[in-house]
């Protein structure tokens, strides 16, 4: 019994139920019957006589009032008690409506969404459908929920603790007996699983009044026949004599034996019962032996491995499914003690006569040894439920028909026996097509989406996959997934990408449903403050417990996770790791170990390996042999019908009359509310001698666009004009310069094989090729291995072609070559014998991503403007010896002229705000451009002091840069703000003003330790850190040391303290990425990354 479901402790003011525990006078689920409610005891006290403990059952109050027992008579031991016999079909619309409403209520309640708009909308939809058609259709998830609940509610099932692991095969689209048979074969194959039995249910169409039922006439999928002998004995199983005669009446001509497997008798509405012989390779049988007694083997006994009940009705939400065969597995003694022993079955035990009172004998020899025997329990029925059905040949309709045909006694169907040829290969394909695979991705810059789509291409060769972005996924579906694959990157400092945040929160909420706040963001608690070693230790501990029985809401879900990240960040792939462990903690079955791809090295290669392993594991898990060979390099992207694939015969551009304006095109492409504005002003903030540029960019604030200090501005840059022109010169099949073009793909029509037609490819909106290369596509990043392979196929020079093929393998050579950062233009110039059609680039290049900048102004002080503080990126590739490269967006912002258009959007950062109470102390740490959001903060405070009469604030700014005379941006503004009472103190760290380097973290340690501790601990203040990720990590370590030293804590306790601060939203981080010492950091980390890549491949047996 599961205490979570049935038993709730309600304290001492409970009223024991009078009379028989089997009788309950209750209100039905969801209906109020005020008179009955008052008479209903709130709970029934149940005692465990062994331990003395008490439990209180309240769930029985949801059971309907009908019950076979009365106060004076218990019918619990009857196998088919009357009220549980076949119920009249639904018919009554009002009843169906009520039952549907109750079911939906319990469905939405389990995901704590009862009463939400989604619930209401669904209820109204179902009501309308019932009104219109007299029926309704359950969604796939509702059906899955209902079937699992029915198992959970099955009072007589000993194995139902595993209810959440039930695999649902939805066969509601089945229309013929042949299809029924195919579904059943799939079911048997899946569940048998080469002997490692798995529970599953196949659900055929629901009962439809007046139309007859889908039925499996056999009581089990696999059963041995029972042949009645002239002497009255039975050859085989005594339980199946009747169905055996029926089958023979249908024309079955078996080799009669003790263990002859019966054929299936299947029927669809309006059709005749039809025979199907089970393919022998599907029926797993075990020859029975004894570990010590050889003679036992000589008895020639055997039994089949799969117990699958085929003749019960499933009732969900008032709908009845008369064919819903399900299977579990045999318990240890069932075959020997019951099937082979019972007199009505094989009757193999020698029995002698001796007087026995079984009521006395039974408990001492078995019941009392069973803990359950001592536990009082209640027996009542809940819906969804499985119910007994009358054998089809005993129903009044069938008897009437028999009579009409004048064949009262003999069973003579006109249908001849049909031995259906069984094709293993066909069956495998059919099964796989029915296995739904959900691929979720969370991405910030688009890589994870590209990889998710590749995964979809690979899986669509065999399965039924669907790709969804995490924030568009309804997490209520999670526990009803069959196979879930997640591709997710990590952002900030170990955080989910923005479109993964809600999923992360909900996953945590699912793991800790009862502690909404304390654990709510604990993926941060677990992964943000731990080192890589800690993660590995944690993973080991998880995998040790993984062998134990899996329970939990995701017990029937198989999953695999691939993380994208960079080892240049302290919390490598933290989000993917969090998702992977959470899914396991929730009971999911990990199909494949977590894959991790480091953008610095080998990301594509490791992804390919992981995708291939996942695919093979999925095939194995669903017993799909002979699936496509996945060993080749391009199988994750070779389909011409996916964005990754390309062929000149299936992809083209055609000229169209009109297209959207740029801002709309960008909005659609990036699914953001993008607006168009203009550059107002630009000013270099650094001294000319510094050799670097940081510019203050002023944008006009378009009407209707609002922001707050701390928010980010997403800027859509243009690619450099000269690169676009050089690239255009290399392209073939270019339409006239100003023609708007639309990308098109040749696709199959709705009816396979009946014609193909050109359809617009939604990847890009209509635009000129030049616009696409300027505004929409990324032409400066090194081309991907896939693109290099495509270029190889278009190259006419054997040497160049060979080199492109080598690079296109995406392994070591590629990674070394990529390190130099060649742009597409450079590649096409180097591999000059490549003829590139424009369509290929439009289809294949990644989207040009927007770049984020912190809002560097406050709308109070600059109502019509939005300021950015932009460090202009310029560097030499190849460790400093390569060609000069310019950051796309920062250089563009530094290049455009006042009045030029800028497309942008606001990304809210609600967790990076000044506290509402200005008296709460704040410490702001922002070296270099990290000071950007703090300019907005100080402008806000200055405005409040000057115009709203606010008192000066306890706020400290810690700023750092190289040299006081060259790089101290906003110096005058800062000092003015301090003089006006915004800052109590401004501390600076000029790293190159003296011989020893001094950074912001040194200032914290040496000058602000006491103050910081007092601010954070005593005064419950806030700490803000903004800028480069390495700096943020260094600051975090120093804060940890300070807390430990000042507060008398161990370093571990101090780390936990920091986690607590983050949970309370008092430790804020705004991470720009690796912006400081980029070359040094990435060079250093890259060699580790390379080693890890090779280790990962070797560990997984790839190299
Ligand atoms: C939330 C957030 C807020 C941000 N706020 C700001 C802000 O307020 N101000 C600001 O200036 N930036 C900010 N950034 C960074 C900004 O978004 C851009 O990343 C930055 O301007 C570079 O973009 P780009 O297009 O000019 O360069 P890209 O074309 O994107 O090139 C940058 C890439 O060049 C490479 N690179 C750079 N330097 C070197 C080097 N020395 N050696 C080798 N490779 C190198 C790195 O791979 C780097 O990723 C923020 C980032 C985030 C995520
Ligand atoms: C601002 C920023 C922060 C990042 N933070 C992390 C991090 O904490 N951990 C990590 O492993 N990778 C981090 N990354 C690297 C990304 O996860 C990596 O670039 C990934 O390939 C991006 O995939 P996507 O395009 O699907 O978002 C960060 C990248 C940026 C630009």
Could you estimate the helical fraction of the residues in percent?
Answer: 25-40%
Low-confidence stretches: 1-38, 408-422, 516-523, 529-533, 630-644
How does the helix and strand content classify structurally? alpha/beta
Give average pLDDT, whole number: 85
Please state roughly what percent of the residues sit in beta strands, choosing from under 5%, 5-15%, 15-25%, 25-35%, 35-45% or over 45%. 15-25%
- Rg from Cα: 35 Å
Count the beta strands: 40
Largest sheet: 6 strands, parallel
Shape: globular
Q: List the ions, cofactors and other small molecules found in this model.
A: flavin-adenine dinucleotide, flavin mononucleotide
**First and last CA, distance:** 49 Å
Enumerate how many helices there are, as a single number: 34
Detailed description of the structure:
With about 1100 residues, the protein is α/β, with parallel strands linked by helices. Helix content is about 35%, strand content about 15%. The protein has 34 helices and 40 strands. Strands 17, 18, 19, 20, 21 and 22 form a six-stranded parallel beta sheet that branches. Helix 22 (about 785-795) packs antiparallel against helix 23. The protein starts with a helix and ends with a helix. Flavin-adenine dinucleotide (FAD) binds near residues 852, 871, 875 and 887.
